[in-house]
Amino acid sequence: MSTNFVRAAIGAAAVAACGGSALAQSALPPVTITGNPLGGSDLVAPAAQLSGTGLTVRSQSTLGETLNQLPGVSSTYFGPNASRPVIRGLDGDRIRILSNGGTALDVSNLSYDHAVAADPLAMERIEVLRGPAALLYGGNAIGGVVNVIDNRIPRQPGEGVLGKADLGYATGGREKNAAAMVETGNSRLGLHVDAFRRRHGDVRVPAALGCTQGGVNRVEARICNSGSEADGGAVGGSLFFDRGYLGASATTYDSSYGAVAEDEVTIGMRSNRYSLEGELRPGGLVQSVKARAGHADYRHTEYEAAEAGTVFRNRGNDLRLEARHAKLGSLEGVLGLQVESARFSADGTEAFAPYSRTRQRALFLYEELATGWGKFTFGGRAEHVQVASEGSPLVARFAPASRSFNPGSASVGVLWNVAPRWQVTGNLAHSQRAPKDYELYADGPHVATGAYEVGSADLGKERSTHAEAGVQWKDGASSLRVNAFSSRFANYIALLGTGRLRDADGGGAGGTGAADCGDGTSLESGCSAEVMPEMAYQGVRATFRGVEASGTMRAWDAAGHTVDVELRGDLVRAMNRSIGQPLPRIAPVRVGATGTWSRGPWSARLGFDHHAAQSRVPAGDRPTGSYTLWQASAQYRMQLQRASLLWYARLDNATDRLAYSATSILTQSAPGRVPLPGRSLKVGLQASF
């Protein structure tokens, strides 16, 4: 997408903000719909959502960091530019990232340095679903679902013009960002256009770090090679008729960012997606039929000192149909079909996985049975997955191969209204996941993990049994929710060290169990690109257990002032039972609190998040120390003609604390190189009309 288009769209929104007419309310309601396709607000599975001012104030440059600190959610943090959500200790292909309920195709699950092809600037709402209800979206949602909603296909008619424009600047990376959205229409037609830009340099940290670029050595209090720039936008439209709608959208996302594991490696990414969505409400036995179809074309190139290197491509299609049947007594539910296909390729020196093609077909069912005291839920999903290696025209060690799997998943849940303000929930689920292409067929050096990765073509389905219990209380503005869970895996697919050393070309490097990299370099200081430790995908027995808690207490409400105290905390314990050691990259115990104040157009927040030390790591991994990060923010809302203006300021890491993430691979593969960002002040203005 050209810079001129982005500027034009932002300008159009600014003009409309001052003179546009009001549009009938078409904003999406703040209900977590991913966890319940029937649209109910009482959810058996734990869920969270960010939208409106809450999302604006919390938004970071990546999806993972935006959601980080939600109870049960951490991030992979590969520097400021690449970060995927981690839910209850599970990451990668076990977390399904959706776009408006459809597949969001990229290669962010393949490698920690690959960014998600989406920017929080363009998101209207983010929903996070934890636990067994995620099985509706496939075995690779075994850990949870993150659904990004952008309203690029309008779903409700309206009259006139509405929109939003957002400008911001942050000191930590000298970041400048701008975004705009305009929607217009009538009772039969809806149109949408949006665009955004983001630019920032190397991100400031409270430590002096070395950097070598262009043959020049320097030491700065910044993360070397952490700058980025991104542009994107979309156009969409819908036709409305008496019993439904039909809409389409085209979306593009371009990004260029530094891969912080290496001083002179950058990644240039482009993702284009085309979507078709519709709903028909015939009435009778079939109340509604929803359909979503999409095509995605993703490509990124890794550059070494501006010279093009490895090129990754991923193209795919997806189709999802959902039919909601009428109530049969107290029973209502949804039946569905999902079809996906994707073709992946990698060409270059860091192509550690072959060309591959994955096809998936699935049938699913979700039902709710209302009772006088609550409800029962139950669901199931049957899949057929074919994963084929197509070899590689450039790498002889990649050979054609194919595997087929038939994963099945089922869950039951209960919600009990034990008292007027109290609810108790329980879930039990069995889930299966087919191995990914790289888990089966990888065979090559992977710089992001600092290892030579080897797949296993004999891997079986990943299988787990999940049990969960929760209690929640709500009384006006005060609420409390606590959930405890246990997931037991009979065949958890883990990437584990083998004790061997490998050359970058696939050959051995001098035995097993070596104390160095084979070239005199110690394993602790990291191996060179030519010699690296071998890691292999293996099926092991594993257990994930934990507790999550969150609550809000109204402390004061008088004379126009309201004061609330928000509390949060989580704990995850993950064990490789096959060898009796902890699994790697698990978040430590975390607790946090935030005080909020509001009076009229003013509001403010002050809080902290404390991360305990993480010493429960597998043999050979480095523990991480404890740290506390303080945050503060303030907002002021005013009305200017037809526009509502929100002025906001946010101070991150207020005490400028040096900290390292326990869930980042960089803490192990590049120790000391990439701390969490230091103190940064962001100021911004958002205009809505």
TrEMBL record:
A molecular function (GO) term: siderophore uptake transmembrane transporter activity
Organism: Ramlibacter lithotrophicus
Name assigned to this protein: TonB-dependent receptor
Span of the signal peptide: 1-24
Membrane topology: Multi-pass membrane protein
Domain TonB-dependent receptor plug intervals: 52-145
Limits of the TonB-dependent receptor-like beta-barrel domain: 240-643
Family of the protein in this entry: Belongs to the TonB-dependent receptor family.
Single Gene Ontology BP annotation: siderophore transmembrane transport
SUPFAM superfamilies: Porins (SSF56935)
One cellular-component annotation, GO: cell outer membrane
Subcellular location: Cell outer membrane
Matching InterPro entries: Beta-barrel_TonB, Beta-barrel_TonB_sf, Plug_dom, Plug_dom_sf, TonB-dep_rcpt-like
Coiled-coil regions listed: none
Pfam families the UniProt entry points to: Plug (PF07715), TonB_dep_Rec_b-barrel (PF00593)
Alphabetically ordered keywords of this record: Cell outer membrane, Membrane, Receptor, Signal, TonB box, Transmembrane, Transmembrane beta strand, Transport
